[in-house]
């Protein structure tokens, strides 16, 4: 059952139209009475398929209390607190939608002077805490002051202390019950305090709260704790469909452990930053329901470093413990000593969960080794190169990079993290997406190239993103649309019989249907509906019946 669905269903008690249970989405109630009756009659034991458990390594985590099938929605939850990101582009404080490019078009809150979308956003309860605090302190943001500060005319300190202070203020002013709940979340405050950037952030937010808003009841330590809670537990929310950019903290969402190949994923579903959790894979009874805190295409070195420096733990999940990184060797370089001997070998970590471990050629006859420091330096250089390349949508820049690196004097192999990242960039940012390379504009060669890249990346996704993962669905969409374009051209050019076209179109439909079954967030549902309609038009145009 679908937690986004507003459709009614028959009440489990009386069969009258009802709304879905907010805990499990699998039964409907016509109203509170029948909900209570059913709850007391046993639904309490079967509703949520998880509980909070404790583990010496993970700390608190969500444990499955029943088998959960892939594709199931496990929970839906409202944020405890949400608001703009720490260092934000200009957004409405109320709904976190990006503001118009022209500051003159911004609506100014009559209470505090902050730019918002509209009168409606001024009246919304989201904006009340900081607006009341500012009015009380006699603070009013003049239009020019807002323009200069928000558009980044001042240095970082101000950007942080202004936008970055909004969510902490809301958190500090939460009703006591919610505040208490929030304060039970993991802080890693001591570890955060060793980070100069964190302390700088604390000082600038405290400065705004104490000196500008004159809210001196909150000690710097309270503010630091709130910021540490956000850094450890909050999720960035970017909803391109709603033009929203922000951050949200969920209580249950904060209980989920990380895994580098997780069994669940979080989706943002409502306009008010509600989230839903979907099982990507089948989750056995008693297992930890986990999500990933970072992009799965990263190799072990990057994952371990990121998790250690931002979430303060050393990941030892099965993927990190496997020196081959699930057979993909994402971090490995080709051995420069074996090169030319006819045996192209890779360097492997001698202990994959230890960042200081030496790297050694996998060929037993070769003695080549590389220190961890050299390995990290090489990775840093390559990461910078690929990041810079991503400024370009010239296909040749990316193909040249791959050709050079995969050639006889290059360091990379076909499933290196940098090669895969480049392929993903080409699929999602160049071919079919940027000027000169739109689907209709692509040559046959480029269309076949895109199809080949999608197929290759779907093979990788089978390993890193199995089941109901967004990456798998997005790749399926890119592949099917490219295949359909090819079918379309071949039928028009009479290179394909209608029977064969019919066969291919059926496969395309199956691929799109699979993607739609994965992407069930409201925005994606609309997007998939549009894609399916376009596909049906194409079929109709070609005289195919699907
Ligand atoms: C969002 S919180 C998760 C809930 C937390 N365990 C608790 O007790 O509140 C993130 C923190 O959980 C711990 N954690 C999450 N996944 C982990 C893992 N795979 N291994 C070790 N610690 C993990 C780390 O301390 C991390 O900073």
Automatic annotation (TrEMBL):
Pfam family, one: SET
Signal peptide feature range: none
Residue stretches making up the MYND-type domain: 11-47
PROSITE patterns given in the database record: SET, ZF_MYND_2
InterPro entries reported in the protein's UniProt record: SET_dom, SET_dom_sf, SET_SmydA-8, Znf_MYND
Superkingdom to which the source organism belongs: Eukaryota
Sequence ranges assigned to domain SET in this UniProt record: 48-294
Record keywords, A-Z: Metal-binding, Zinc, Zinc-finger
GO molecular function: N-methyltransferase activity; protein methyltransferase activity; S-adenosylmethionine-dependent methyltransferase activity; zinc ion binding
Protein name (Swiss-Prot/TrEMBL): SET domain-containing protein SmydA-8-like
